[in-house]
């Protein structure tokens, strides 16, 4: 049994799929591949025993792993909920739909020996465009004990997520962009004063949703990420019916207080949602930082 | 279907181009009267929608004409085929228009500096503007407000604190600082608003008047002037001071890790390139030392409030250790009361607790030091928002943020006033 576990741990870096988003990494497997790995093809590949299966299964709470009730104001719950937010945004967000954690109602964690820590969070989120609050979200977030950064594994559902109807807005935006003579481009969103021109808002949202993928992948128990700036967005040519954009975004990690630059390419259409097709970390002083100058469109 | 069409039309209207994009202004150099006549003929062609800034009068004088984008080719062909020399004075009129709008709003804001009543509190200001505003406030209400020079920054900028006092000598005092981390712009902006609020309310509002009849209030609005200047000129996301670090090309020390409380312990970095670099030793930063010296020599501060952004939290000590402060219960109760008051205005919700539990372990922090000095009511605020805009909070949220924060601060001041120690 023990050796099975060692093999399991040894194989995880392979199975987890996408090369981790390290400094020199240039490209990333598509998000689809990463998602497949996350969503349970593991069991069939790895011949896990019952203990290991229990650790990975979303809803079973094994009494062998003691549950610890968490203070919902304290940072362990905050950080875990933020990961769920990033996950939710990547799977359900769009240029018209962007969620932020609103309130954490209940939180607990369990330490799973030799695996990691699994958090159980009940929370509500607020959609930023409509200001609607979606209550009754539950998430399980597993942070694995690995030497290198590995994306937390998340299961997250919200009861009335579908009540937020943005498909009309998304479709209208999609058609509008398709019919523009010039490709979309923008810099410094928001500008120093916090202004965002109305026409750039969807691209700010889209940047946020794309960045959610990166933030989800980069999170662990010692991080708390937010996207704080879109340095630039540029529409790319695309042959198929997906719109494609090249972004440079600034992420802020509250724990280290560092501002991290990421370059990413994002594909979107209203039916397929948002996908990050490529991303790489940029060196710290790689570019002029957001300045007080006006943005250019 | 109809809805989609209407929506698309609406979006097209919203996204439609601005008026002068691609328009050019040409400077035409005519060499003889014949060419002047040709230009006058051109003027007659209304469909071109030409706008002559300097009309064709005499071959010796240039003619300046604003040509809409749509007519550019026709006009240039006309000029070239008639051998009329011209140059492009303005390549894209729209960018000039936008530049000018900015200039106007800037000069408007400097014009409004005539007095603190016409100052624009709903916009972010430069260091110079804030320092000028301070002088104006002092001169308008010199019976209540004075400006104290407590030290100089690394780059030799003056560090000022505003003192609100109705007399006495070293009365029990309340301290408020904003902008210790320069990128947190809503804090300096809130500090300005609150200073003005105090000056306005004294003599009119019963609460502030009673406080000021027995206590002094000190506000340091730009606690990190070098960093603040840098956020305006080079890097909007700059956090630290701008002191140089020997042996490193990286600049700056985190002024909220540089205080003598748990200095050197976990919760700060020893790497000069890090955003949480503690510095070579406690109080190495003049921005920090100035406050330390001032507080120690004053000796009678009863509350100390240090304001940051973002996250919407009200925090009390400690950050450097899990050991609760002796006054934990009282500080916790007061924090709850303060954030309840804050939320009454706009429904903004805050979390609260000790630094180490609520946000992270942090050593060398301001309020850990002030608490250990015996200043019991030591609090750190983290203002709006929770991450949507983060540091770059829209200017239209400055006043609402300041207003609600003021309610929380008044709660702390009231408790301090009612519980002398």
UniProtKB/TrEMBL annotation, chain A:
<keyword id="KW-0677">Repeat</keyword>
<dbReference type="InterPro" id="IPR009684">
    <property type="entry name" value="Latexin"/>
</dbReference>
<dbReference type="Pfam" id="PF06907">
    <property type="entry name" value="LXN"/>
</dbReference>
<feature type="domain" description="Cystatin LXN-type">
    <location>
        <begin position="185"/>
        <end position="289"/>
    </location>
</feature>
<dbReference type="InterPro" id="IPR046350">
    <property type="entry name" value="Cystatin_sf"/>
</dbReference>
<keyword id="KW-0732">Signal</keyword>
<protein>
    <submittedName>
        <fullName>Latexin-like isoform X2</fullName>
    </submittedName>
</protein>
<keyword id="KW-0646">Protease inhibitor</keyword>
<comment type="similarity">
    <text>Belongs to the protease inhibitor I47 (latexin) family.</text>
</comment>
<feature type="signal peptide">
    <location>
        <begin position="1"/>
        <end position="17"/>
    </location>
</feature>
<dbReference type="InterPro" id="IPR049897">
    <property type="entry name" value="CYSTATIN_LXN"/>
</dbReference>
<feature type="domain" description="Cystatin LXN-type">
    <location>
        <begin position="66"/>
        <end position="166"/>
    </location>
</feature>
From TrEMBL, chain B:
<dbReference type="Pfam" id="PF00246">
    <property type="entry name" value="Peptidase_M14"/>
</dbReference>
<dbReference type="Pfam" id="PF02244">
    <property type="entry name" value="Propep_M14"/>
</dbReference>
<keyword id="KW-0479">Metal-binding</keyword>
<feature type="signal peptide">
    <location>
        <begin position="1"/>
        <end position="16"/>
    </location>
</feature>
<comment type="similarity">
    <text>Belongs to the peptidase M14 family.</text>
</comment>
<dbReference type="InterPro" id="IPR057247">
    <property type="entry name" value="CARBOXYPEPT_ZN_2"/>
</dbReference>
<keyword id="KW-0378">Hydrolase</keyword>
<dbReference type="InterPro" id="IPR057246">
    <property type="entry name" value="CARBOXYPEPT_ZN_1"/>
</dbReference>
<keyword id="KW-0482">Metalloprotease</keyword>
<keyword id="KW-0732">Signal</keyword>
<feature type="active site" description="Proton donor/acceptor">
    <location>
        <position position="382"/>
    </location>
</feature>
<dbReference type="InterPro" id="IPR034248">
    <property type="entry name" value="CPA_M14_CPD"/>
</dbReference>
<dbReference type="InterPro" id="IPR000834">
    <property type="entry name" value="Peptidase_M14"/>
</dbReference>
<keyword id="KW-0862">Zinc</keyword>
<keyword id="KW-0645">Protease</keyword>
<keyword id="KW-0121">Carboxypeptidase</keyword>
<keyword id="KW-0964">Secreted</keyword>
<feature type="domain" description="Peptidase M14">
    <location>
        <begin position="123"/>
        <end position="416"/>
    </location>
</feature>
<protein>
    <recommendedName>
        <fullName>Carboxypeptidase A1</fullName>
        <ecNumber>3.4.17.1</ecNumber>
    </recommendedName>
</protein>
<keyword id="KW-0865">Zymogen</keyword>
<dbReference type="InterPro" id="IPR003146">
    <property type="entry name" value="M14A_act_pep"/>
</dbReference>
<keyword id="KW-1015">Disulfide bond</keyword>
């Amino acid at each position: 049994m023990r050796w099975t576990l060692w093999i399991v741990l040894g194989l995880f870096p392979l199975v987890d799929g996408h090369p981790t988003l390290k400094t020199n990494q240039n490209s990333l497997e598509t998000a689809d591949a990463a998602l497949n790995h996350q969503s349970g093809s593991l069991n069939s590949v790895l011949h896990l025993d019952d203990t290991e299966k229990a650790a990975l299964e979303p809803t079973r709470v094994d009494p062998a792993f003691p549950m610890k009730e968490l203070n919902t104001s304290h940072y362990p719950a905050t950080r875990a909920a933020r990961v769920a937010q990033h996950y939710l945004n990547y799977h359900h967000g769009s240029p018209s739909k962007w969620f932020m954690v609103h309130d954490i109602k209940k939180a607990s964690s369990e330490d799973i020996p030799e695996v990691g820590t699994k958090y159980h969070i009940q929370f509500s989120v607020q959609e930023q465009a409509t200001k609607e609050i979606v209550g009754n979200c539950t998430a399980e977030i597993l942070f694995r004990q690995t030497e290198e950064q590995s994306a937390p594994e998340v299961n997250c559902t919200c009861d009335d997520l579908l009540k937020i109807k943005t498909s009309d807005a998304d479709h209208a935006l999609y058609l509008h962009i398709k019919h523009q003579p010039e490709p979309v481009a923008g810099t410094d969103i928001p500008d120093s004063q916090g202004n965002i021109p109305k026409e750039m808002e969807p691209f700010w949202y889209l940047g946020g949703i794309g960045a959610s993928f990166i933030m989800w992948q980069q999170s662990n128990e010692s991080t708390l990420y937010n996207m704080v700036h879109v340095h630039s967005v540029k529409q790319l040519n695309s042959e198929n019916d997906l719109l494609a954009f090249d972004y440079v975004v600034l992420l802020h990690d509250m724990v280290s207080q560092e501002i991290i630059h990421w370059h990413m390419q994002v594909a979107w259409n209203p039916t397929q949602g948002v996908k990050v097709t490529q991303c790489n970390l940029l060196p710290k002083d790689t570019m002029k930082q957001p300045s007080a100058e006006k943005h250019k469109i | 279907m109809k809805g989609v069409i209407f929506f698309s039309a609406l979006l097209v209207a919203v996204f439609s181009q601005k008026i002068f994009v691609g328009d050019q202004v040409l400077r035409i150099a005519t060499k003889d009267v014949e060419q002047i006549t040709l230009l006058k003929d051109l003027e007659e062609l209304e469909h071109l929608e030409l706008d002559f800034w300097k009309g064709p009068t005499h071959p010796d004088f240039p003619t300046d004409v604003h040509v809409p984008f749509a007519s550019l080719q026709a006009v240039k062909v006309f000029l070239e085929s008639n051998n009329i020399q011209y140059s492009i004075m303005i390549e894209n009129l729209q960018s000039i228009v936008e530049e000018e709008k900015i200039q106007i709003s800037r000069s408007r804001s400097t014009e409004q500096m005539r007095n603190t009543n016409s100052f624009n509190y709903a916009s972010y200001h430069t260091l110079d503007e804030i320092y000028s505003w301070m002088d104006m406030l002092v001169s308008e209400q010199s019976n209540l407000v004075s400006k104290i020079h407590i030290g100089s920054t690394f780059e030799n900028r003056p560090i000022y604190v505003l003192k609100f006092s109705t007399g006495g000598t070293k009365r029990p005092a309340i301290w408020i600082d904003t902008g210790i981390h320069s990128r947190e712009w809503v804090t300096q902006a809130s500090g300005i608003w609150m200073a003005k609020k105090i000056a306005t309310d004294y003599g009119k509002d019963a609460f502030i008047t009673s406080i000021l009849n027995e206590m002094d209030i000190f506000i340091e609005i730009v606690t990190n002037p070098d960093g603040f200047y840098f956020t305006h000129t080079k890097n909007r996301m700059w956090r630290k001071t701008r002191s140089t670090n020997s042996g490193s090309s990286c600049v700056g020390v985190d002024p909220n890790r540089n205080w003598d409380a748990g200095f050197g312990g976990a919760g700060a970095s020893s790497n000069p390139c890090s955003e949480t670099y503690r510095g070579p030793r406690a109080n190495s930063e003049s921005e920090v030392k100035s406050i330390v010296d001032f507080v120690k020599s004053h000796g009678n501060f009863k509350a100390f409030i240090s304001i940051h952004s973002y996250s919407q939290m009200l925090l009390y000590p400690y950050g450097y250790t899990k050991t609760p402060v002796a006054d934990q219960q009282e500080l916790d109760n007061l924090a709850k009361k303060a954030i309840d008051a804050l939320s009454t205005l706009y429904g903004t919700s805050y979390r609260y607790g000790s630094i180490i539990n609520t946000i992270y372990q942090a050593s060398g922090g301001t309020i850990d030091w002030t608490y250990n000095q015996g200043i019991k009511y030591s609090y750190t605020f983290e203002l709006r928002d929770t991450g949507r805009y983060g540091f770059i909070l829209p200017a239209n949220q400055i006043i609402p943020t300041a207003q609600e924060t003021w309610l929380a601060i008044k709660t702390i001041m009231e408790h301090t006033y009612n519980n002398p120690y």
